[in-house]
Design goal:
With about 230 residues, the chain is mostly helical. It has one domain. The chain has helices at about 5-15, 20-35, 45-70, 85-115, 120-135, 140-145, 150-160, 165-190, 195-230. Helix 4 runs antiparallel to helix 5 and helix 8 packs antiparallel against helix 9 (about 195-230). The longest helix has about 35 residues, at about 195-230.
Length: about 230
Amino acid sequence: MDVRTILIDGLSLLVTHRRRFVQALAVPFVLLVLFDLVPLFELPTLVELIAAVFGLLVYAVFAVVTHRLVILGPDSVPRFGLTTISKREVFFIGYSFVVAIPLALLMMPGLVMGLASGTYVLTIVGALIGSYVLARWSLVLPGVAVDKLVTLGRSWEMTKPHQGGMFLVVIVVPGLLTAILMLPQVLSGTLEMGFVRLALGSLVGMLIAVFTITILSMAYRQISASNSASEDPS
């Protein structure tokens, strides 16, 4: 697995086909930015909950469209992307929670102990182990998006020769990009965000999400091609 090639080719693909990506992702992109602004309006809890559910569904569409454009090509989705929610998107949400479960379960005990003792070593260790499992299971998501179900076990097997590369693609690169996004807030000494700052942050965050999903798709393509070549008896 060539991480450098994945990053360069992923960025090149987005730049080369930027008009197609914008065309297919514009609606969910704008909706997700708007959903990020909901907390500013102090709406009733029920309304915020409904908005969060719709946000999950829209994000599933957003991610599935991106995966399909990268893996299957520009003609794999309608001109303006997916306009309906199918069982594919519902499965995508479900599997997204499943692959994130180890991260949550391994972090929580350390976080609770850290709050009590002020030491967060166990939280960090749990986060690293959980992130490793998440990276190894993550091929499930592009598989669901292109209607080729990759089980958790199969994803674990496929990523066995590429453990370090998958950790870089799924955890390290998105983490670094997110940290860069958060840097202005940290330097300003406040985590409070007004309308403009929140909107800009959401916009940049969505661009990072597009790139993150793209490089995961590129990893899926590269690993799938490698596995197919190794299984070809000829």
